[in-house]
Design brief:
Elements lengths: L6 H28 L17 H22 L16 H8 L4 H9 L2 E7 L4 H17 L2 E6 L3 H11 L7 E6 L3 E7 L4 H13 L2
Parallel strand pairs: 1-2
Antiparallel strand pairs: 1-3, 3-4
Helix pairs in contact: 3-4, 5-7
Length: about 200
């Protein structure tokens, strides 16, 4: 026996099938939308600096900074050490006691024999005599001192010692302790001065 389905029934069945397919597709789409698309970012917890432990640590750090600042602002003070003046040689003291000017006494403290040139810095001849006397002292290897006859501080002691005004230019050769070995009034070249200094050194 053959069963025949009427057209209205066919239409109703087709509509029902389409409805079922549409409902299934709708469930599938809803399932995809419910899934998380991205992962939730991690949550970072920030601890605020409160509490007794933090306060104690902060106080210690503050005290350390204050101590360091005081150390920087208050450098160690260096107490100056008083330096004693060097003692004068005994030969220098002896020359001073003998009445010689301080410049000649200091020179005798350094050298056993000293050539002294009395010079007037305003006179041309005295300038040449000064250069010759200095060269003669250097050639003999003895000390040299120039005294300005215009300066009372330089010449007053010698004037008192000799009892007269000494001429310029002139050469005086001293040996220790305060002995006048040679006196040359007037101009003397370097060879003459060197020979006089040599004689004074050997005691001639």
């Amino acid at each position: 026996m053959t069963t025949t389905v009427s057209p209205p029934v066919r239409i109703a069945g087709a509509v029902g099938l389409l409805a079922a397919l549409a409902l299934g597709a709708s469930f599938m789409l809803m399932g995809h939308k419910g899934s998380p698309a991205t992962s939730t970012p991690p949550v970072h917890i920030v601890h605020h600096p409160f509490g007794p432990g933090i306060a104690k640590k902060t106080a210690i750090q503050s005290a350390a900074k204050t101590h360091t600042a005081k150390a920087v602002q208050s450098p160690t003070k260096h107490v100056p050490v008083a330096r004693k003046a060097p003692a004068r040689p005994s030969v220098e003291i002896a020359a001073l006691r003998a009445g010689l000017p301080a410049s000649i006494a200091r020179a005798l403290g350094r050298d056993p024999v000293v050539v002294v040139e009395l010079t007037n810095p305003q006179a041309e001849v005295d300038g040449i005599a000064y250069a010759e006397a200095r060269a003669g002292a250097a050639a003999a290897g003895v000390g040299f001192v120039a005294l300005n006859v215009l300066s009372q501080a330089d010449i007053s002691r010698l004037t008192q010692q000799f009892g007269q005004v000494l001429p310029d230019p002139s050469v005086l050769v001293y040996r220790r302790p305060a002995t006048l070995a040679v006196r040359i009034d007037g101009f003397a070249d370097k060879e003459t001065v060197a020979q006089a200094a040599h004689n004074a050194a050997v005691g001639g």
